[in-house]
């Protein structure tokens, strides 16, 4: 076990260890000297801005991007302005803050994405210092201008610049300053000499650290913890004050005996640890101090110039040759590996080692653990400790010990063991030198799997991302589909390959994978200027609703219309037609629709309800005289003035004649004659009938007693006799002119018979008048007529006389056994006699 604890250093009640993550793969001849360096948290990439080796005016800095293992990702000559600060966003984009306040944004591979400004005033006053920070709002930037004013942007994705209040008496650059994020507010803490100020949105507030040493004169370095909860201040007297970020609670104060200003200071505090610690770095010396009773500290000598990268649970140290991790040893690891430990986990590890040696001591260790009733705890300790280890061999050793121990437990729950094995397999894969993401287990849990997948995708490590998704059984739409979509979007940007090759490759790779929209990939191709590739990719998109909008955006309206029609979605067709109408001139638009009958039909339906004038133009262009005639007829009914209506009908008749539709032309002509008749009638008799149909006009004339005019209309329009007799009969009954009805019935033989006379009298509750017409009814209808007037005996006589089975049954259905007994008997006898014959 000595090899595990070889790098441990005791400090108070805890141990600290320095783990070598990588031997850097970059080739830096002068190390990190004359370089601006920015390393992203959570094992992110490293950016170096190397100053030119010769001081020629034409010499330019070199910007290089590496993985955490030193593998190159991008390198290009810096041709823009003077860079004051480099930093990384939470999504691994590189920010370069220039002297003129412009911020340039690059991706991992050095491709320029966008730029924005921190304010026009910085063009003149320039940026003196800048800091890039992360807060609950996202990635932010704070700059100090040449006017000694702080300008803040809390989220670069939604730029809202805040100009913080002036600091009283500030005539130069502060000795040190930092950005704090507290209670969802972003503030600036700065020191000028021994004075401390906090700047927020509204005020500049002087503050004083609780229990600050009177020996301290000037504060020359400040560092906030990764979570912004704690603060460390370094003074020119060598004292370090550590406390809460609001400066109200003092944790400790340590005298480092060092008067030289440090180059960097960072917190190293594992979550849930009871011992906060701060790492201070000078040029080639690293000092480690912690909050303990005696304020103990220890130091490391550094071989090369280095940079500290604060993390959630540790500090990374990057030099020109190595990348190391400095962290507090977890309690569980300490209990297992420290010398002479009798913790259950330590005994189980020893038992497993003896078991592999086939020694009986394994049984003795197990018995000792069982006597303490600590076998379950021992297994848990080994599993938990395995998660904190970086070396795969140490992980395996602990997990094998845990697996050995759980064989002797009957009720051990395997979830922790399985999840730890799964997590370690993922972590070991991303920690590999070729990937270069040295995450700890706590960082991995904090980051979440989805973010890790995103980072791998962003680095174009698609095979690894897919393998992790499949291994962790992430749902396709969240895992493999998302990775493949990003791969496809990246693939379409490769200009060196032909459109057909890329389209075929994307189709073969993606197939019908759930959760992938080809339209999104096609949209990306179109944004890259590859319209033909975008069209080819859209052929694989099964949803027309996704194809059509992009085709319209690409100005491929004809193809969009065809796709919309193929889909059978009328709303989609209307969308394309509306777009075409707005984009094309009227003539071209109509010609386009003529080639698509379905679209033309739908557009006509739309125009009938919304754009009547457009419909008329459409018919005119097509020389569709039949539809034009119909259009004028419909238009005539919407006109209030009679003259205008007559004009529309005249136009309709002309169009019908051109269409050689004689029936419609004749009908329209008769409609015009009727309107003239109605107008004349209105002028002469004062009856308002304009707009009524022929039948309604006749009815109205008969109701008001204008029988001559009704007769004239009946003859002029050749109304069928049966229709006219029905109209007059109903009108006379409605006005109860029974005398006129009787005269009318005697004018000539009724073309409709006389049963309607009976029915209409009964309908108006006049049986007396109805009986007058019973004798005139034909023999076939007399039974019904007698029944209608309530003469059952007469109905029975007719039915017996005609010996009609149906009529006999009809009369019987209206008789009752008590009151009509005689009639019923006669009908039954007649039926029986008829049956015998």
Automatic annotation (TrEMBL):
Entry's Gene Ontology BP terms: endosomal transport; intracellular protein transport; vacuole fusion, non-autophagic
Keyword Hydrolase appears in the UniProt entry: no
Domain Vps16 C-terminal: 516-831
Positions of the Vps16 N-terminal domain: 5-418
PANTHER family: VACUOLAR PROTEIN SORTING VPS16 (PTHR12811), VACUOLAR PROTEIN SORTING-ASSOCIATED PROTEIN 16 HOMOLOG (PTHR12811:SF0)
Known function: Plays a role in vesicle-mediated protein trafficking to lysosomal compartments including the endocytic membrane transport and autophagic pathways. Believed to act as a core component of the putative HOPS and CORVET endosomal tethering complexes.
This protein's name: Vacuolar protein sorting-associated protein 16 homolog
Organism expressing this protein natively: Paramormyrops kingsleyae
């Amino acid at each position: 076990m000595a090899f595990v604890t070889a790098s441990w250093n005791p400090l108070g009640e805890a141990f600290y260890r320095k783990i070598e993550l990588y031997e850097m793969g970059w080739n830096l001849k002068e190390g990190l000297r004359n370089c601006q360096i920015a390393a992203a948290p959570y094992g992110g990439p490293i950016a170096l801005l190397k100053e030119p080796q010769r001081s020629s005016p034409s010499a330019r800095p070199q910007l290089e991007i590496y993985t955490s293992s030193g593998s190159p990702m991008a390198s290009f000559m810096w041709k823009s302005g003077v860079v004051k600060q480099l930093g990384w966003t939470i999504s691994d984009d590189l920010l370069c803050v220039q002297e003129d306040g412009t911020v340039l944004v690059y991706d991992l591979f050095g491709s320029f994405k966008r730029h924005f400004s921190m304010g026009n005033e910085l063009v003149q006053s320039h940026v003196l210092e800048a800091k890039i920070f992360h807060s609950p709002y996202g990635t932010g930037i704070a700059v100090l201008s040449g006017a000694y004013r702080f300008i803040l942007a809390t989220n670069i994705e939604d730029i809202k610049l805040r100009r913080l209040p002036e600091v009283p008496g500030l005539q130069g650059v502060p000795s040190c300053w930092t950005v704090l994020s507290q209670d969802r507010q972003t503030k600036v803490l700065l020191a000028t000499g021994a004075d401390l100020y906090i700047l927020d949105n509204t005020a500049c507030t002087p503050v004083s650290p609780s229990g600050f040493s009177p020996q301290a004169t000037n504060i020359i370095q400040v560092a906030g913890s990764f979570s912004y909860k704690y603060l460390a201040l370094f003074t020119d007297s060598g004292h370090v004050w550590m406390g809460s970020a609001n400066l109200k609670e003092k944790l400790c104060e340590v005298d480092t005996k060092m008067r030289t200003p440090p180059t960097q200071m960072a917190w190293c505090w594992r979550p849930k640890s009871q011992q906060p610690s701060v790492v201070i770095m000078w040029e080639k010396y690293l000092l480690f101090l912690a909050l303990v009773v005696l304020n103990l500290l220890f130091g490391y000598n550094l071989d090369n110039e280095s940079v500290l990268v604060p993390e959630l649970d540790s500090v990374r140290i990057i030099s020109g040759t190595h990348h190391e991790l400095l962290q507090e040893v977890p309690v569980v690891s300490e209990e297992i590996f420290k010398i002479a430990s009798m913790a259950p986990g330590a005994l189980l590890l020893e038992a497993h080692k003896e078991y592999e040696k086939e020694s009986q001591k394994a049984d003795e260790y197990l018995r000792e653990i069982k006597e303490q009733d600590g076998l379950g705890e021992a297994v848990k300790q080994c599993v938990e400790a395995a998660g904190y280890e970086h070396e795969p061999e140490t992980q395996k050793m602990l997990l094998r010990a845990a697996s050995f121990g759980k064989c002797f437990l009957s009720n051990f729950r395997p979830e922790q063991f399985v999840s730890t094995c799964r997590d370690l397999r993922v972590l070991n894969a991303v920690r590999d030198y070729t990937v270069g993401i040295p995450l700890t287990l706590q960082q991995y849990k904090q980051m979440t799997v989805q973010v890790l997948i995103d980072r791998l995708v962003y680095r174009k490590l698609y095979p690894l991302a897919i393998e992790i998704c499949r291994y962790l059984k992430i749902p396709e739409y969240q895992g493999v589909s998302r990775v493949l979509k990003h791969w496809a979007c990246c693939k379409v940007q490769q200009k060196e390959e032909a459109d057909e090759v890329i389209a075929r490759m994307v189709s073969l790779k993606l197939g019908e994978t759930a959760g992938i929209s080809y339209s999104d990939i096609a949209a990306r191709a179109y944004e890259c200027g590859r319209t033909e590739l975008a069209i080819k990719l859209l052929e694989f998109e099964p949803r027309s609703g996704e194809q059509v909008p992009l085709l319209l955006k690409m100005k491929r309206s004809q193809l969009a219309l065809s796709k919309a029609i193929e889909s059978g979605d009328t709303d989609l067709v209307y969308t394309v037609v509306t777009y075409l109408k707005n984009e094309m001139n009227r003539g071209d638009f109509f010609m386009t629709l003529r080639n698509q009958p379905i679209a033309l039909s739908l557009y006509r339906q739309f125009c009938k309800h919304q754009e009547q004038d457009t419909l008329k133009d459409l018919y005119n262009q097509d020389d569709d005289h039949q539809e034009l005639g119909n259009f004028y007829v419909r238009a005539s009914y919407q006109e209030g003035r009679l003259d205008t209506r007559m004009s529309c009908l005249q136009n309709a008749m002309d169009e019908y004649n051109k269409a050689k539709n004689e029936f419609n032309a004749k009908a329209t002509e008769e409609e015009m004659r009727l309107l003239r008749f109605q107008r004349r009638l209105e002028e002469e008799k004062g009856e308002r009938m304009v707009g009524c149909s022929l039948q309604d006009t006749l009815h109205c004339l008969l109701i008001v007693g204008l029988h001559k005019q009704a007769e004239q209309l009946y003859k002029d329009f050749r109304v069928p006799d049966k229709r006219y007799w029905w109209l007059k009969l109903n009108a006379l009954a409605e006005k109860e002119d029974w005398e006129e009805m009787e005269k009318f019935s005697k004018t000539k033989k009724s073309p409709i018979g006389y049963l309607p006379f009976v029915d209409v009298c009964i309908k108006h509750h006049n049986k007396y008048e109805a009986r007058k017409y019973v004798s005139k009814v034909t023999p076939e209808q007399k039974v019904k007529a007698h029944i209608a007037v309530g003469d059952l005996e007469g109905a029975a006589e007719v039915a017996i006389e005609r010996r009609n089975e149906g009529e006999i049954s009809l009369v019987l259905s209206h008789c009752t056994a008590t009151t009509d007994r005689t009639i019923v008997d006669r009908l039954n006898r007649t039926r029986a006699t008829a049956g015998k014959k």
